[in-house]
Amino acid sequence: MSEKKEVGILLVEDDDGQATLVERNLLRAGLSNNFRRLKDGQEALDYFFDAEGAVKPLIKDPMVILLDVNMPRVGGVDVLKRLKENKATASIPIVMLTTTDDPREIERCYEYGCNLYITKPVEYEAFIEAVRRLGFFLQIIKVPNATRLVAQ
Predict the structure, then answer these.
(1) Residue 112 lies in domain
(2) Bridge partners of 119?
């Protein structure tokens, strides 16, 4: 029988209030996973890639990235594209979390390789419920180990 590993959650979200709501409600949904937040797309790129653009050797456990679309400095779509273009990071599941429900934006994210696109409801209670449901989803999914994240 294989050992169950918790899936780490990397949230890339520039809005402090929404980041707090996401983390708090994932905890309420029963996720006690390793949780890390980055505040914008540039921080996400710096987390995965060094100054020369090579992938940093850093993660051994499975992870899921929750990625906002609209952020300062580097947008979520650009981060998605960069991660999915790189062989070492392409298998990391990426969930786009955004208020944007433009069909062209949704199509573009799927074309670049996002695994799930969730529109954040504007209403507070609906947003909380959406995050809780996401938490239940994250409890049951299987993701690949990120042991391939080694400098290439």
Answers:
(1) 8-139
(2) 98
